[in-house]
Amino acid sequence: MRILVTGGAGFIGGHVVDLLIARGHEVIVLDNLDARAHAGEPDYLNAGARYEWADVTDPEAWLRLLPGVDAVSHQAAMVGLGVDFGDARDYVSTNDGGTATGLWAMHRAGFRGRLVLASSMVVYGEGAYRCEAHGSMQPPPRARAALDAGHFDPSCPRCGRALIPEAITEAAPLDPRNVYAATKVHQEHLCAAFAREHEVSVIALRYHNVYGPRMPRDTPYAGVASIFRSALEAGRAPQVFEDGAQIRDFVTVADVAAANAAALTVDLDQSFVACNIASGEPRSIGAMAETLSAAFGDAAPRPERTGRYRLGDVRHIFGAPDRARDLLGYRARVSFEDGLQDFARAPLRESLQPVRTGSVRP
């Protein structure tokens, strides 16, 4: 197959490119080497791929690359919570605008292949919860006053009891709690509308907390694993927000790349379907910080629980990977302990340097 991978020079996209080429596919990459994630052209680019340095919001770039393409892996996005609401325009223009531009170009080019969208667990907002008295529920956003008082866990809005977190499924209602999350929901909706109108199959992969080699180093747009790893590498204690008990699912980039390869090639009789891509081994952020610190050795500083919070964060979110298993044959292969042990020594990527655009590397 000939596959177009947007964001294919990035963290997840680069691993997807490597795996697709290893499996014999022809790969074309569209990437703008965004300075928030790249210090320049990375040294791990796959010689078997064709790279075009252009932006996903550039319709001419899409139209140049789409002819003959059998499938599109849309990984390009601005990720993370960012610095503050001042990032909103960049998130919307890159994520929503880039996706709309790509879909417009696919429409113009008569594309009828598979489209895989890199989505995120952030579309759910808070995860799934159960009250012992009132059953399943999705709590409202946490109030600033409660967070200031150190009350981080949501409670039942009917009786005030502490809620019990559970694995969330793809059937849960979408409830984005920050700008990034809102753009991921919109990307899914745009792709679903395109799929219905063009008889194209779209699979949205809702990534949970992905980590591994090539994460951008020490940037507010990186994941928490990279931020903790950067601190430890500099001899600083990881700064764990809240009390560290918030639960996530940490999944390796190798497992995520495998899910993408399966999604690009699996038979599908639906126009749009979403899948959680998770390890199935939820852990607290505090436990992740402790495990990563231990992997650096006895002399490494131990994590510090700060009590600070970010209003756009959610408390507990971890996904049930059953649909990905049944539809894609996906199972995470790397354990939490083994993955973090490897990540402690994995190379990270420098960022925050001028961006290069417009050149083509054959």
Overall description:
The protein is an alpha/beta fold and 362 residues long. It is 32% helix and 18% strand. The chain is built from 10 helices and 17 strands. Strand 1, helix 1 and strand 2 form a beta-alpha-beta unit. Helix 2 packs across helix 3, helix 6 packs parallel to helix 8 and helix 8 packs across helix 10. 48% of the residues are buried.
* Strand content bin: 15-25%
Number of strands: 17
Largest sheet: 8 strands, mixed
Rg estimate, integer Å: 20 Å
Helix content: 25-40%
The gross shape turns out to be globular
Distance between the termini: 18 Å
Number of helices: 10
What's the rounded overall pLDDT mean?
92
Unreliable runs, pLDDT <50, ≥5 residues? 353-362
Q: Walk across the major sheet and give the strand order.
A: 14-9-5-4-1-2-3-17
**Helix-strand sequence:** EHEEHEHEEEHEHEEHEEEHEEHEHHE
Structural class call reads alpha/beta
Give a short synopsis of this structure:
The protein has helices at residues 11-22, 59-65, 88-109, 144-148, 179-198, 224-233, 253-265, 285-295, 322-328, 336-343, and strands spanning 2-6, 26-31, 50-53, 71-74, 114-120, 128-131, 135-137, 164-166, 202-207, 209-211, 239-240, 247-248, 250-252, 272-277, 283-284, 304-305, 360-361. With 362 residues, it is α/β, with parallel strands linked by helices.
Distinctive features:
362 residues, alpha/beta, 8-stranded mixed β-sheet, 3-stranded antiparallel β-sheet, 10 helices, globular
Secondary structure topology:
Elements: E1 2-6, H1 11-22, E2 26-31, E3 50-53, H2 59-65, E4 71-74, H3 88-109, E5 114-120, E6 128-131, E7 135-137, H4 144-148, E8 164-166, H5 179-198, E9 202-207, E10 209-211, H6 224-233, E11 239-240, E12 247-248, E13 250-252, H7 253-265, E14 272-277, E15 283-284, H8 285-295, E16 304-305, H9 322-328, H10 336-343, E17 360-361
Parallel strand pairs: 1-2, 1-4, 2-3, 4-5, 5-9, 9-14, 10-13, 11-16
Antiparallel strand pairs: 3-17, 6-7, 6-8, 12-15
Helix pairs in contact: 1-7, 2-3, 3-5, 6-8, 8-10
